[in-house]
Amino acid sequence: MMHNFNHERWGFVVQxxxxxxxxYEEAFKxxxxxxxxxxxxxxxxVIRAKLxxxxxxxxxxxxxxxxxxxxxxxxxxxxxxPIVRFQHLIASPFN
Length: 95
Hints:
By secondary structure, this protein is mainly α. The protein has one domain (2-91): Butyryl-CoA Dehydrogenase, subunit A, domain 3 (Up-down Bundle). Helix content is 72%, strand content 4%. The chain is built from three helices and two strands, in the order αββαα. It has helices spanning 6-33, 45-74, 82-91; strands spanning 35-36, 39-40. Strands 1-2 form a two-stranded antiparallel sheet. The longest helix is centred in the middle third of the chain and has 30 residues, at 45-74. The protein is elongated, with a radius of gyration of 19 Å.
């Protein structure tokens, strides 16, 4: 029964990653508009570091998502059941 929900879980992952990208874009735009202490917010090193960390995490999630998608599509479906295939990918996404 659980393998029936795998595509829904994958859809949630894709939606969450896209929403994170949109939120990052809005934060980046805001940092360019907002002025504090006589400078734009983006000119403060702490804010640049936070935005860089956000971008790193979003890109890492996207890369893992693409890797798992490739693995799911390239595993032989006739020799491994969908449940076993998905559990294997969750346990070791880079094998």
